[in-house]
Write a structure and sequence with these properties.
Elements (H helix, E strand, L loop, with lengths): L2 H9 L4 H22 L2 H18 L8 H20 L6 H11 L8 H20 L2 H11 L5 H8 L3 H21 L5
């Protein structure tokens, strides 16, 4: 079923919308949550909560593309649960991915910094637009969807070392780009 048809089901308040959304995007939603939480039950809970959130926001929203909208909700819910569960612990897979970018991005600590973070996000988007498609996809899959280096190596039919080097070079280029744009890192 096409996204537009699924959205129309939401607007008609038909429960079939949730079933169709799950059939079409359930796998990717589960993968996003699993990559962050590494816990099947917590991931299922996040995905189900995301379906409820979509139900509650469509209408009035009419997201385009639907997959990005749903994945963003799943990711945000998974991150919230991740932070709740790991307040004093370390989750090696997701923390490692975030630590790879730690020296590239400033950490917001005040309201002014939060506003500045939105500007930095726009700069990161512009930077991603300058990358080759392969590097852009690799970067987003690693730092947005939290794919492991092994998963990326398999996806791109490259070695884990190759993926690690590409991501390291992209992160270094991002740091240089942000410094050139005047962002204090």
């Amino acid at each position: 079923m096409e996204d537009q048809e699924i959205i129309e089901l939401f607007f008609a308040r038909k429960e079939q919308a949730i079933c169709e959304l799950s059939n079409k995007y359930g796998t990717i939603c589960s993968k996003v949550a699993d990559n962050i939480l590494n816990n099947r039950l917590d991931s299922e809970e996040c995905v189900n909560d995301a379906y409820l959130a979509v139900w509650n926001t469509i209408p009035p929203k009419k997201p385009e593309p639907l997959v990005s909208y749903v994945c963003r909700i799943v990711r945000n819910l998974a991150l919230k649960k991740y932070h709740e569960k790991t307040a004093q612990k370390r989750n090696s897979s997701y923390d490692v991915a975030l630590e790879e970018l730690a020296d590239c991005l400033p950490s917001p600590s005040s309201v002014e910094d939060e506003i500045s973070a939105n500007a930095v996000a726009e700069m990161v988007n512009r930077f991603l637009g300058t990358l080759e498609q392969r590097d852009r996809i690799m970067f987003v899959r690693r730092y947005w969807y939290a794919d492991s280096l092994d998963e990326l190596a398999e996806l791109f039919h490259k070695s884990k070392h190759y993926v690690s080097v590409r991501l390291s070079r992209t992160s270094k280029a991002l740091r240089q780009y942000l410094c050139k744009e005047g962002v204090d890192i």
